[in-house]
From TrEMBL:
Protein name: Hemolysin expression modulating protein
Domain of life: Bacteria
Entry keywords, A to Z: Secreted
GO molecular function, one term: calcium ion binding
A Pfam family of this chain: HemolysinCabind
PROSITE patterns: HEMOLYSIN_CALCIUM (PS00330)
A GO cellular-component term linked to this record: extracellular region
Listed SUPFAM superfamilies: beta-Roll
Localization annotation: Secreted
InterPro entries: Hemolysin-typ_Ca-bd_CS (IPR018511), Hemolysn_Ca-bd (IPR001343), RTX_toxin/Mannuronan_C5-epim (IPR050557), Serralysin-like_metalloprot_C (IPR011049)
Length: 264
């Protein structure tokens, strides 16, 4: 295993076909891991890190960095600054960090964690786990059966194709499952959420039992809290929380609650 270190200026550092550890140090550096399993540190400056083949770890550090995983199962960690991360092929883990980042999963089953800041997270192909974290995030699962968790903030969550699970978390979230049989999860403290494309008999709203101390214990209990507001159905979940189902008739909800709700 070789160790390479840059200096205070803008360096181009190229690893070997073996497993390397490369430190960019100061300046705006470009680091290529090449073959095998490499560990790359951008450190100070606005750096560009290429993992190459192998299962690599790339850490941006300070500055606005660009991280490419390449092939293999990679871990990309943005650190401080507004970073762009692309997992590539393989099952990758991407972590955004403190600022507003862009995370692109790639072709396999990836985990994306935006961290704090207003992030854009796109899972891509595969069955991905997409975690918004703090901030107002834009999240897209892509193809595959994805899990999207918004966290804090007012998030836009798009499941894409596949059978997805979407949980907005705190904040006023807008959710669209896309195609497939999607599940929207509500456990209390979630704010005023909107579901754009709910399909009765295919999608499901999963409601926590006794959510917000409402005494809800069944699908009928939830349906009793549904009212018509314009073209939409609004469901009062107590404690200031609500779900708005766009272009859904409240009478349909109350006529067949089990096609809409699952109480867990």
């Amino acid at each position: 295993m070789a160790t390479l270190e840059g200096g205070a200026f803008d360096d181009a550092l190229l690893g070997s076909r073996f497993s390397d550890v490369i430190f960019g140090r100061g300046g705006d550096d470009t680091i290529f891991g090449q073959g095998n399993d490499d560990v790359l540190f951008g450190e100070e400056g606005d750096d560009v890190l290429f993992g190459g083949s192998g299962d690599d770890v790339a850490v941006g550090g300070e500055g606005d960095d660009v991280l490419f995983g390449g092939s293999g199962d990679d871990a990309l960690i943005g650190g401080d600054g507004s970073d762009l991360m692309m997992g590539g092929s393989g099952e990758d883990v991407l972590s955004g960090g403190a600022d507003s980042d862009i995370l692109l999963g790639g072709s396999d089953n990836d985990v994306l964690d935006g961290g704090s800041g207003n992030d854009v997270l796109i899972g891509g192909a595969g069955d991905d786990i997409v975690l918004g974290g703090g901030g107002d995030d834009v999240m897209l699962g892509g193809s595959g059966d994805d899990v999207l968790q918004g966290g804090e903030g007012d998030d836009l969550m798009l499941g894409g194709s596949g059978d997805d699970v979407l949980e907005g978390g705190a904040g006023d979230d807008i959710m669209s499952g896309g195609s497939g049989a999607d599940t929207f999860v509500f456990s209390g403290g979630g704010g005023n959420d909107v579901v754009l494309d709910f399909q009765a008999g295919e999608d499901m709203l999963s409601i926590s039992s006794n959510i917000n101390d409402t005494g809800i214990a069944s699908a009928d209990d939830v349906a009793a809290r549904a009212t018509q507001v314009g073209a939409n159905t609004v469901i009062d979940l107590g404690n200031g929380d609500s779900i708005t189902l766009n272009n859904v008739d409240a009478e349909d909800v109350q006529d067949d609650p089990d096609s809409f709700f699952s109480v867990q």
